[in-house]
Amino acid sequence: MTEYTPKAQQTRQLILNTALDLFIRKGYEAATMREIAAEAKVSLGLAYRYFDSKEALVLSLYQQMAAETDNVVEKLPAGTVAQRFWLTMTTRLEQNLPYRDAFGALFGTMMTPKSNVELLSADAEAMRQRAESAFVALVTHASDSPRPAQIHEVGRFLNIIHFMVILFWLLDRSAEQRATKSLLRFICDLLPWLLRGISFPFIRRELSRFITIVDGLFAVP
């Protein structure tokens, strides 16, 4: 990973924030790197030094989101899996609020098959793996963590659920996204039952089956 001086990091973040604002106003496809550089008041060459394409801007946003999830999980207090998942998701959604319109503007591109910035693309794999590692850590250090052999599966499951909640949140038009909070409460109410049930072969088998089905989304055709 490239290390930047504080001034360079500030410039890089300015370019990224300017791009996100332009994506909101013009749409991802219509915005150009030249316009992004002009609005950020930097040269086109400098913009390309930090981001070699529009796709790199979006992938950088994904990486930033994954890094912030890491930071939240590292600072979680002791608690159950459900308590730690609730804190992680409510904190992350609050942190993501300034980017909600940008994600909305990018939604079509993020969901377009074969797009370089599709959430399921190979280019976004590093972000998905980093997020998965964060949720495995969340489970590992919980007070009701399952047996070591089951921790990774539960962490992978929570990572999948976390992406589903974010997509739900993007589409949520209820006041203050109350529907998303209700969904999160429902999930957190179910998690203790999942953790108790995972000792049964049937539950373990069905959990693995669910993860395998979702993994099929990432299979290369």
Give the helices and strands, then pairings.
Layout: H1 6-26, H2 33-40, H3 44-50, H4 54-74, H5 81-96, H6 100-110, H7 125-140, H8 148-171, H9 178-197, H10 201-215
Helix pairs in contact: 1-2, 1-6, 2-3, 4-5, 4-7, 5-9, 7-8, 8-9, 8-10
Could you please describe the fold and organization of this structure?
With 221 residues, the protein is mainly alpha-helical. It has 2 domains: 1-52, Orthogonal Bundle (Arc Repressor Mutant, subunit A); 58-218, Tetracycline Repressor, domain 2 (Orthogonal Bundle). The protein has 10 helices and no strands. α2 (33-40) crosses α3 and α4 (54-74) packs antiparallel against α5. The relative contact order is 0.10. The model has no long low-confidence stretch (mean pLDDT 88).
